[in-house]
Design goal:
The complex is a heterodimer of chains A (about 300) and B (about 375).
Chain A lengths: L4 E12 L2 E12 L3 E5 L6 H8 L7 E6 L2 E2 L4 H7 E4 L11 H11 L5 H12 L14 H13 L5 E5 L7 H16 L3 E5 L3 H4 L4 E6 L2 E6 L1 H7 L3 E6 L3 H8 L7 E5 L2 E6 L2 H14 L5 E4 L3 H16 L1
Parallel strand pairs in A: 3-8, 3-9, 6-7, 7-8
Antiparallel strand pairs in A: 1-2, 1-4, 4-5, 9-10, 11-13, 11-14, 12-13
Helix pairs in contact in A: 3-4, 3-5
Chain B lengths: L2 H4 L5 H17 L1 H21 L7 E7 L4 H12 L3 E6 L3 H10 L4 E5 L3 H6 L5 E7 L3 H18 L1 H4 L11 E7 L6 H31 L2 H7 L4 H29 L9 H25 L3 H18 L11 H8 L2 H15 L3 H25 L6
Parallel strand pairs in B: 1-2, 1-3, 4-5
Antiparallel strand pairs in B: 3-4
Helix pairs in contact in B: 3-13, 4-7, 9-10, 9-11, 9-12, 9-13, 9-15, 11-12, 12-13, 12-15, 12-16, 15-16
The chains are: A alpha/beta (about 300), B alpha/beta (about 375).
Chain lengths: ~300, ~375
């Protein structure tokens, strides 16, 4: 079964009010793969996910999701997909147990009590089963939502910014669980703004203004951007940042505390500019470094803004 | 101004900031704006043109057992009074009873056999006028006008020049179904319908909008639950609530107001269920249109206003002009009032209930159709 495509859609297009929110996007995800969707706010990540699970009807595009036609077999897809919405969308005025029981009933699952019981146990929420879901903290809500989404044992999990507003420990636990699920053969498509999460995906796609700009493994995406990056360790990082802004070869300048990241697509020009600036004084040392995913994405974002305008 | 009073000073700039913000928000909230403008217009129209506490042209069934000239002139005098409008002729007692029990007519006039002969002999024969007095307000003025009408009735025929002379016959008025003209007999049964309209529409109107507002709608749509399942699931629990309300009013009607229950209780219950379902479906339809719970409330209020004014609950239905009656016929409450008053006061059974309740089924089917069309399985 390896190499089988869980999602295989091409030319997905959706417009709202004459604006293409998703524009000719193709998505291919192999079974058991974790695919990350990255991109700025309003780039079409959520819309793409909603198109895949049948919550929205695409204006154009075709393909299959879990072997079912995305345009005509939404019903069959819904039964096998777990969709975790960006905003907590279970019932805050129901208890944890009641929420799980509701989901189990809607999916007509056998052995409802057993499943709910096992889910509660796995979550470690057995002793808080009668607590209202609305009183849970953000991290626990997210765990509950995930548990409810996988109770019907979906073959595909769609996660829309699942870790927004969740603390680092909870995020790490969450991702450990995602990896376990993927190992068991579940396909996962997850949107996120966090670079560390992107690096935990098997493959990532970068969306901006409804279009897919790049796709591949993290290394492929970083290498594909053709970016050269230098770092400067100086107490005057902010002042230096202002000096370098707009000079030839300088596409990106970003201070990280006392360390300044300077990136550009033209490595030679960038090196020359840095050497000239260091000579002008005040002097500084610069060293070549590996561009980070964030550098690549901010560059992509800037470029796509230019293209859009 | 000193420093410490400055803390409490009313700042016109700050006040103006609030006023400007409120104006902007009010302008964007179209439905509230529509409500602000619409309510006075609707109220003016309804109270100014539709509502009439002196109903005229009331449908009257006529039983003429003696076709003599005097009987005819009595009938035309009744018609000319403006209150009585002969709509059908009965050939038997049973037909009169049926028309009154169904609420099809407000009055029945019987000119007895041998009327003409008895009149000539000076025997003061009786003309029987039966009124459906279940709504005392609808018949009051017509009955009050009777003696004047009759005194003038035969003036012309007798060629008499003394108009004040009493007529040579008697009029027997039977106020049927509510002989003492007790207002509560009319109001309390109607209250069942009004309470159900008020609560049931709001309950379901809020139901879907709550899902949307809290973001749970998206999850619900992503799960394999069908629109009809969602709709029925939302409608079944409030039916129980409605049943409790009905029980409370019925008990109070019996214990506190002595309102009789002369007809078939099971038939009434079937109509109650239909009526509750119709209102719940109306509410569900609102909730597929409203964007938030406030709008759902506002729409329910918009529905409640004509329901209470044009259904015949507060004001006699037959007093309204045709356009207002047409609107009234589209409201579930209008039909339910006929049923509930028919059963409790006029002794209606299954047959009469079916005759009055079928429009509820039509309304239910139409509204359900609209609701399911409006309910979208996607977020489009």
């Amino acid at each position: 079964m390896n190499g089988e495509l869980a999602i295989d859609v091409t030319g997905l297009t959706k417009s709202f009010g004459g604006r293409n929110v998703v524009d000719d996007v193709s998505v291919r995800v192999r079974r058991g793969e974790i695919m990350g969707f990255l991109g700025p706010n309003g780039s079409g990540k959520t819309t793409t996910i909603r198109l895949l699970c049948g919550l929205l009807v695409p204006d154009a595009g075709e393909g299959t999701c879990l072997g079912h036609d995305v345009l005509r077999e939404g019903e069959a897809i819904r039964r096998q997909v777990g969709y975790m919405t960006q905003k907590f969308s279970f019932y805050e005025d129901l208890t944890i147990e009641e929420n799980l029981a509701f989901v189990a009933r809607v999916f007509e699952l056998d052995d409802r009590r057993g499943r709910v019981e096992r889910t509660l146990e796995r979550l470690g929420l057995g002793n808080r089963r009668r607590q209202l879901a609305g009183t849970l903290s953000g991290g626990w809500k997210q765990r509950l939502a995930l548990a409810a989404c996988i109770m019907h044992e979906p073959r595909l999990l769609l996660l829309d910014e699942p870790t927004a507003g969740v603390d680092p420990k909870a995020r790490r636990d969450f991702w450990d669980e995602i990896h376990e699920l993927a190992e068991d053969g579940m396909t996962v498509l997850v949107s996120t703004h966090y670079m560390d999460e992107a690096e935990r995906c098997h493959r990532i796609a970068y969306l901006a203004y409804g279009q897919k700009l790049t796709e591949g493994t993290v290394d492929e995406v970083v290498a594909g951007a053709g970016l050269s990056t230098f770092t400067v360790d100086t107490p005057g990082a902010a002042a230096l940042s202002r000096r370098l802004q707009g000079r030839p070869g300088v596409d990106l300048v970003a201070p990280f505390g006392n360390v300044l990241h300077i990136s550009g697509r033209d490595g030679a020009a960038l090196r020359a500019t840095l050497a000239a600036a260091a000579a002008e004084g005040p002097a500084f040392d610069f060293i070549a470094d590996r561009p980070t995913l964030e550098d690549v994405f901010i560059l992509l974002m800037n470029q796509s803004t230019d293209n859009f305008a | 101004m000193s420093a410490h009073t400055g803390r409490f000073r009313l700042s016109l700039a700050r006040l103006w900031a609030m006023v400007v913000k409120e104006f902007i928000q009010m302008r964007r909230d179209r439905l509230t704006f529509a409500l602000l403008v619409g309510i006075p217009i609707i109220q003016l129209t309804l109270f100014g043109f539709a509502i009439n506490n002196d109903p005229k042209g009331l449908p009257t069934i006529v039983h003429v057992a003696d076709a003599g000239p005097h009987g005819r002139s009595v009938l035309s005098a009744l018609r000319n009074s403006g209150y009585f409008r002969p709509t059908e002729e009965a050939v038997s007692r049973a037909e009169i009873d049926r028309a009154l029990e169904l609420g099809r007519v407000q009055f029945a006039v019987t000119i007895p056999a041998g009327f003409e002969r008895a009149l000539r002999r000076g025997e003061h024969p009786q003309i029987l006028i039966e009124a459906d007095a279940s709504d005392p307000a609808a018949t009051g003025n017509a009955i009050a006008a009777l003696s004047r009408v009759m005194t003038n009735a035969l003036v012309h025929d007798r060629g008499d020049v003394t108009p004040a002379a009493p007529p040579p016959f008697d009029i027997a008025v039977h106020r049927r179904f509510n002989p003492e003209g007790i207002t509560q007999y009319n109001i309390v049964p109607g209250l069942i319908g009004v309470i159900l309209t008020m609560t049931m529409v709001i309950v379901t109107a809020m139901a879907m909008t709550r899902e949307r507002e809290r973001g749970t709608m998206e999850n619900l749509l992503a799960m394999p639950v069908r629109p009809i399942e969602v709709m029925l699931g939302k409608i079944v629990p409030p039916i129980g609530m409605g049943a409790i309300q009905v029980a409370v009013v019925l008990l109070a009607a019996r214990a506190l107001f002595d309102v009789p229950m002369t007809g078939s209780f099971p038939a009434l219950m079937i109509a109650v269920m239909l009526f509750i379902a119709a209102n719940l479906c109306v509410g569900f339809t609102f909730s597929t249109v409203a964007r938030n719970q406030l709008q759902a409330m506002q729409m329910s209020f918009f529905f409640f206003l004509p329901s209470i004014l044009l259904s015949g609950f507060m004001f006699p239905f037959r007093g309204m002009p045709v356009w207002a009656q047409t609107i009234g016929e589209c409201l579930p409450l209008t039909h339910f009032l006929r049923v509930v008053r028919g059963v409790m006061l006029r002794g209606n059974g299954f047959g009469e209930v079916a005759a009055n309740a079928w429009p509820l089924v039509v309304i239910l089917v139409v509204v359900t159709f609209v609701a399911l069309r409006r309910y979208k399985r996607t977020l489009d």
